Amino acid sequence: VRAVTIVDQALELAERPDPQPGPGEVQVRVHGAGVNRADVLQRAGRYPSPPGVPADIPGMEFAGEVSALGEGVTTHAVGDRVFGIVGGGAQAELLTTSADACAPIPGELDLVTAGGIPEVYVTAHDAMRTRAGLQAGEHVVVHAVGSGVGIAVLQLAKALGCTVTGTARTAEKLDRALELGLDHAVLAPRELDPDTFAFELIEHGGPADVVIDLVGGPYVAADLGCAAVRGRVVVVGTLAGGRVELPLLGLMGKRLELHGTVLRARTIPEKAAAIRAFVDECEPWLADGTLRPVVERVLPLGGAQAAYDLLASDATFGKVILDATG
Ligand SMILES: NC(=O)c1ccc[n+]([C@@H]2O[C@H](COP(=O)([O-])OP(=O)(O)OC[C@H]3O[C@@H](n4cnc5c(N)ncnc54)[C@H](OP(=O)(O)O)[C@@H]3O)[C@@H](O)[C@H]2O)c1
Questions:
Q1: From CA 63, how far away is CA 114, in angstroms rounded?
Q2: Among candidates 127, 53, 14, 34, which has minimal Cα distance to 316?
């Protein structure tokens, strides 16, 4: 089987033995596997994969067809169309994973495109619904709205009947997000002053009930500044840095909740629960196209190096996906 492998901080295609499903696992013939920022960090040697997955084959999400069943699996059949999140190893022609962490793909979605769904939509759903308890009619602020996760947050929040303010450093991405239903667009400066930015966010969309922060760094202080009383802030990414100074009196005075989250480090039962929660609520929206992945580029497995460079360039709007069928 061919697999993307990390060799000296670069990517190569290598031949590997077919992975065999253990008890409770399925083997999946991968059609599509999305590329994520964590993969880019892993390539650079800065985000090793967790135990239990191949250490040098990246890839945290996939869609494909079940190709073999491990002992005791009764929930799936060979040929089932499934997608899921894994700790690593998805950017290959075959992978094995727990049957519990694979969900059936609703509707007629093609399997390559579906490979760009799980990581960003499960992250968005888990952050907004499970962590922040987002309710219909609330106001959501999301930073880096043109990112893979940002677009998922936007689509899901609109499907839930919320108002959305989105930020990006690129005006063209804001225009595209407005076409996708964004209510308020705020251009973020390259050098951010949190107080000024918080003021600008409130001026556009009012105080935020929920902030989904994919950027981190100084944005988090702005999140506390723009949040409504009893608002919830969820830190999902650290593109702008992992250390900040925060206005704690604001946190206390508004009785805010500050959450942090990662998917990758979760146990398999926790990953399975997150996927199930997403599919249980969002299946109809996936089937009718309310939630529709926006794809920047599809490249073959052999184009992984270019795919990672493209994502790291900050020039993308939506997902970069590897097609493992070519
Ligand atoms: N916690 C989790 O489980 C989890 C899961 C998935 C992803 N994430 C995180 O979520 C974030 C988004 O991931 P993604 O794959 O959706 O990203 P993506 O599609 O690659 O988009 C990222 C965008 O963020 C903006 N950006 C980059 N550096 C920035 C900076 N220093 N300040 C402000 N904006 C910046 C850029 O757009 P503009 O500059 O044009 O606005 C860039 O295109 C990442 O931090 C990722 O690590 C976390």
A1: 6
A2: 34
Find the Cα–Cα–Cα–Cα dihedral 49, 313, 152, 116, rounded to 10°. Answer: -60
What is the pTM (predicted TM-score) of this model? Answer: 0.98
Q: Which helix (H) or strand (E) holds 175?
A: helix 171-179
Pocket of ligand 1 (CB under 6 A): 36-38, 119-120, 123, 144, 146-149, 168-170, 173, 214-215, 236-237, 239-240, 261-263, 311, 314, 316
**Residue 86 in contact with residue 59, Cβ under 8 Å?**
yes
Which pLDDT does position 52 carry in this prediction? Answer: 86
Look up residue 161 and give its two tokens: 């009947």
- Strand runs labelled E in 249-300: 257-260, 295-300
In Å, the largest CA–CA distance within the chain is: 58
Q: CA 6 from chain center: how many Å?
A: 22
Q: Give the 3-state secondary structure of 43-64.
A: HCCCCCCCCCCCCCCCCCEEEE
Kindly state the tokens that stand for 127.
């952050």
**For tokens 């900050």, what's the residue?**
314
pLDDT digits (tens, 9 = 90+) for 43-80: 999 998 888 889 999 999 999 999 999 999 999 999 99
Residue from 169, 266, 311 whose mutation best tests the ligand 1 pocket (most atoms within 8 A of CB): 169
The answer for 91, left when phi > 0, alpha when psi is -120 to 50, beta otherwise, is beta
Residue pLDDT, tens place only, 215-232: 999 999 999 999 999 999
**Which residues are 79's β-sheet partners?**
none
